[in-house]
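Q: I have 114 residues here and want to know how they pack in 3D. Can you give me a structure?
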Amino acid sequence: QVQLVESGGGSVQPGGSLRLSCAASGRIFSIAVMAWYRQAPGKQRESVATITSGGSTNYADSVKGRFTISRDNAKNTVYLQMNSLKPEDTAVYYCHCAAYGNYWGQGTQVTVSS
């Protein structure tokens, strides 16, 4: 069983930055594919960024060049650095872990507004 706890969400003006963190319990973190998803009101949940156990990354076109996903296997933590935030980035952001099953965090709200 894996538990994921996100932190770092909040409110920021357009052009600002936030860093999300997701701390994972369990011993499988180092082999897991970790990802960040987001869900805006009235929209489907979408993948934002993914990082494999080997460190390979993939991003949604809408965030390329602005967001960076990274992981620290020693701390069982995955991060999402979000720069140049736009109002359309407003959503609940969820951490996801894929390893012998699929696990989700509780979500953290990110609001980008002037």
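Q: Anything worth noting?
A: The mean pLDDT is 96. The radius of gyration is 13 Å.
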